[in-house]
Amino acid sequence: MADLSQIVKAYDVRGVVPDQWDESLAELFGAAFVQVTDASAIVVGHDMRPSSPGLSRAFARGAAAHGADVTEIGLCSTDQLYFASGQLSLPGAMFTASHNPAQYNGIKMCRAGAAPVGQETGLADIRALVEEWTENGAPQPAGRTGTITQRDTLDDYAAHLRSLVDLTRIRPLKVVVDAGNGMGGHTVPTVLAGLPADLLPMYFELDGTFPNHEANPLDPKNIVDLQAKVRETGADIGLAFDGDADRCFVVDERGEPVSPSAITALVASRELAKHPGGTVIHNLITSWSVPEVVRENGGTPVRTRVGHSFIKQEMARTGAIFGGEHSAHYYFRDFWNADTGMLAALHVLAALGEQGGTLSDLVRQYDRYAASGEINSTVADQAGRMTAVKAAYADVPGAQLDELDGLTVTTADWWFNLRASNTEPLLRLNVEARDKATVARLVDEVLALVRA
């Protein structure tokens, strides 16, 4: 019997196929999803992984058997599934394992209007039903069987994104895009069609075995090819998408990575021009630049914990217009508070194309501090090491400590955050300061305590 504790995570289902889960389990998840959401109709999509079509169809069968009409949108990015959920006002399920290796697959679920389904908002109930049914057998459906129909939403998705950004004033740009053999290869050509962009595609062939590199641009080794191509072709910008194309990473004309914090600040300034006085959400390990830029542009910054469920909750609570994370997830009120890297990419292309300078010049105003990036340490005693670090900095003159998410220590000239992974024996460290020397000193100090 499947061990659901291993595959039902905080925000989604994810595990190795067929070792940890398979189509028979996917069918039960479909039935449970319909029961928990009380849905009479749902929308289902999937990525390019070899196991995705079968798992997706099994989920649809389970949902239809329990009375829901299923609209299958087939191959899509995760944000395209969110679009369909929002546009059609239907609960949705996306079959993807994002940037995980080929043998993995998963389900990201949402309620109508792309509202997230996590442990506190239905996922725990879905798991409980699936566990009960795997042990005792699923109940026989009562009433009508739902229909399963197909619908192509790619053109509507692309048109909706382009309606949210003024792209009429951009100059011709040379744009390299690395899709990592993921769903960006499916969506980018349609979204960028008609723009004055010389598109140089890399790894657009849909291949869930990821033959060229992992579809995880957060790892520097996976954007090396993109950086080289930008330099070699003299491109204006490089974009990299993860496997399900909901995150977008940017490199400038020199092939240098642009921090997601700088992209958050840039997009925030543009969204505030559209929605004056709006609220912008940022997690606590984005740069100081983000709240500074938000205030400079007349907005209100709100700081949250790391994780899309917290961002989306705060988006809904505050009516925020935009939210950004250090991991290159970007959330828009105009996109049902859901995350879409593609919309962020269009904002960056518009900002770059509306002026004659380079991307590195453009983002300099949004990239004001030195940062370490995220540094992971494997530790046996997470709580003990956190306590040691807290004790070491408790009496530093002028330091403020808070525990909104892990431990954050802030002074006038620097801050660092140390937090535990939910799924691995890791502590994650992020440091920012006014100069590189201070960053290096703090990294050495904190890691000495963490790895003692």
Automatic annotation (TrEMBL):
Residues 6-135, 155-255, 262-369 form the Alpha-D-phosphohexomutase alpha/beta/alpha domain. Its cofactor is Mg(2+). Transmembrane segments: none annotated. InterPro entries: A-D-PHexomutase_a/b/a-I, A-D-PHexomutase_a/b/a-I/II/III, A-D-PHexomutase_a/b/a-II, A-D-PHexomutase_a/b/a-III, A-D-PHexomutase_C, A-D-PHexomutase_C_sf, Alpha-D-phosphohexomutase_SF. Keywords: Isomerase, Magnesium, Metal-binding, Phosphoprotein. Residues 374-448 form the Alpha-D-phosphohexomutase C-terminal domain. GO terms for molecular function: intramolecular phosphotransferase activity; metal ion binding. GO terms for biological process: carbohydrate metabolic process. Belongs to the phosphohexose mutase family. PANTHER family: PHOSPHOMANNOMUTASE (PTHR43771). This is Phosphomannomutase/phosphoglucomutase. It comes from Streptomyces mashuensis.
